[in-house]
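Incident log, support desk, overnight shift.

02:14 A customer reports that sequence design results differ from what the structure should imply. Their input is reproduced verbatim below. On-call engineer (initials T.W.) acknowledged and began investigating.
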């Protein structure tokens, strides 16, 4: 069962599994996709788009989404339609017809169907799709390598492999230095926020004047642990870039490793599902979406003692380094794709010129 929150930057991140009988009762019609269909969010957060994977599950949709299936051997290449939904041509028209209720933005299926698109030849559509797709495919590979590296690192630090435990405050210190972003004189800062974590674990490079609330200052390597809904795996191993101020949302706890423990090892024990589940049992707050765990409760909780890792600690550091490098490269490729996309979709940039640019990056 695909929801708006499951559609992230062109990919399907998660989906709720629903039994067939429940599916029949919850849906009003046969809203089931095929591999290669393009899904678009039309209510809440309008305009998120993704292509259905060519392998895997069959998806049904919440009423906040719809999908498109170009005609077989028709005049429209599916992947070109996917990129069109990310283009300026789509957004200029969508913003004109988009409506709003008290709760959320929306765009009707009739309005979507009425939009007009520049439709070059099938050959040009395929060429544009291949250029942009080469970048997206490399981004996907990088993300898979990063995820696999982190999974291996977590396996090395699994509580099932180690008996020794330590309170979290025995291997890290809680940093609470707050700053007011508008008072920062640098032209840009790296903003470590919950949305930035959820969309790829890369901080947003922003003008500090546009950040309205106070933030924690991150000085040196650290692990950011979300105190909001701790059962959600938001544990971020960060290495701020030299010369660029690093700010973290106050929804994070800023944990600085001590006692010879690396931030990679600290992350590997703090990101364990058993530790998150323990924190989830200590949350306060009545709203399910805004439950928080107290910092004192976090620091007093026990984790695997990484000071006994030995050679495995170096392996964890190597794997974490690989994950970080892959994500940074993916962010660079994403920026390049976002630069080329409007130029190619509008016809202002020739495909051959774009191909030469992409060849240097993939």
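02:41 Re-run completed on a clean worker. Output:
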């Amino acid at each position: 069962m695909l929801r708006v929150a499951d559609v992230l930057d062109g990919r399907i991140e998660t989906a709720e599994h629903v039994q067939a009988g429940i599916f029949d009762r919850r849906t009003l019609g046969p809203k089931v996709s095929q591999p290669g269909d393009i899904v678009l969010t039309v209510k809440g957060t309008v305009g998120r788009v993704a292509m259905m994977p060519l392998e895997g599950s069959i998806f049904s949709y919440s009423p906040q989404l719809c999908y498109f299936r170009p005609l077989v051997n028709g005049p429209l290449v599916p992947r070109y339609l996917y990129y069109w939904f990310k283009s300026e041509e789509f957004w200029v028209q969508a913003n004109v017809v988009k409506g709003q209720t008290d709760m959320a933005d929306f765009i009707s299926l009739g309005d979507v169907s009425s939009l007009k698109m520049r439709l070059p030849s099938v050959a040009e559509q395929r060429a544009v799709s291949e250029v942009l797709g080469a970048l997206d495919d490399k981004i996907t590979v990088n993300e898979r390598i990063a995820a696999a590296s982190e999974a291996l690192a977590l396996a090395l630090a699994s509580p099932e492999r180690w008996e020794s435990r330590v309170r979290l405050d025995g291997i890290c210190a809680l940093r609470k230095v707050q700053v007011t972003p508008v008072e920062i004189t640098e032209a840009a800062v790296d903003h470590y926020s919950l949305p930035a974590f959820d969309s790829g674990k890369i901080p947003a490079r922003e003008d500090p004047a546009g950040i309205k609330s106070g933030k924690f200052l991150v000085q040196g390597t650290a692990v950011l642990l979300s105190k909001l809904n701790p059962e959600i795996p938001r544990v971020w191993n960060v290495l701020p870039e030299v010369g660029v101020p690093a700010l973290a949302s106050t929804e994070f706890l800023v944990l600085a490793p001590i006692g010879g423990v690396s931030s990679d090892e600290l992350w590997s024990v703090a990101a364990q599902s058993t530790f998150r589940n323990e924190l989830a049992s200590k949350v306060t707050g009545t709203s399910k979406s805004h439950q928080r765990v107290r910092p004192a409760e976090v620091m007093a909780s026990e984790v695997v003692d990484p000071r006994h890792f030995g050679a495995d600690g170096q392996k964890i550091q190597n794997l974490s380094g690989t994950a970080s490098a892959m994500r940074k490269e993916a962010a660079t490729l994403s920026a390049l794709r976002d630069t080329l996309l409007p130029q190619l979709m509008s016809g202002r940039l020739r495909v051959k010129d774009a191909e030469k640019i992409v060849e240097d990056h993939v």
